[in-house]
Amino acid sequence: MEKASEGTSVYRVLEGIAVLTSLAILFTLDLAIGIHNILYPIAGAVTIYGSNHLRRCRNLYQGYLWGIESMGYLPDKRGLYIAIIKAISIVEILLIASGISLIIYPIAGLQLGGYTLYILLISLFSFALVAIIGHFTRVELYRIFLEKVRRSG
Question: 23: which of 73, 95, 124, 149 fits an S-S bond (Cβ 3.0–4.6 Å)?
Answer without folding.
Answer: 124
